[in-house]
Amino acid sequence: SHFPGIEIDGTSYSFPPDKTLDTWIASTPEGFRFHLKPLGILVGIQVPSASLPRPVKETVTKQKATLKDLPDQAIEYIWQRTNDMFLRFADARRLGCAIFQFPLSFKPREGQLEKVVECRRRLHPRIPMAVEFRERLWLTGTQLEHTVTFCRQHNLALIVADDLKHELYWPERERMGLDPSRPERMPMPVKVTHTDFLFARVHRREGSARLLSEKEVEEWGERVRRVDTDGMIDE
C-alpha cells in the first residue's frame, strides 16, 4: 500500500510455481512493478544441483554446478523458463526489469563482458535488463568509463548500489580488518546508461541503522533530482 514496486531476490535460487507468480500479479494494483533476478547460475554463481529444475538437475552429476557443467539443452531449458517467468509479468504489465547481479568473483578481464552480452542476447527483447557488478573494480578508475560505455551500447541499466564495505565483503571482513562499527561506503557512481530508467538499490542496514535516516533520504532525493542522461553524478 506504500510502494509502487518490489525487488524479488528469491527467483535467483529457484523458479517459483506459476500459481505463485499469478497470485503476486493478481494481488497488486495497476502500475505496480516487480523487479526480479534470474537464477544465480546464469550470472556465474556455483549453485547446489538440487536447487535446479528437475529436467536440469537430472543432467548433472556434481553436487554443485555452474553453467559449464550443463549440457546445451539444459541451458536452453533454463533460459526458456527464465523468459517465460519474466514475460508472465510483462504480459500483465507488472514487470519492472530483470536484475543480473554479477558476483564478486566476476572481475574485469578478457572475455567477461561477452558473458553479459550473451545474457542480453538470450533474454527476451521485451525484458529490460539491469546489471550490477558487485566487484567495484568495474566502477573505479579508467574501468568505469569502459563499463558505462559498454552498458550504453547494449542499453543495460547500470545499477547503483549503496553497499558498505564490511557488508559487501562479509565472508572475509575479519581477514580484511573491516570493522562494522566504522562503516566505509563503497564507490557509488550514478550513471544513466539505459534509455528508459535508472535502478538504485538502497540497502537495508543492521540494528539501529536498519532504517534510512532523514539525512540519507534527503541525500537520495538530491541524487535523483540531479541525475541526467549524461550520468553526471560521481560519488
From TrEMBL:
Transmembrane domains' residue ranges: none
Species classification: Eukaryota, Eukaryota incertae sedis
Domain of life: Eukaryota
Originating species: Palpitomonas bilix
Signal peptide (UniProt feature, chain positions): none
Protein name: DUF72 domain-containing protein
Family annotation (Pfam families): DUF72
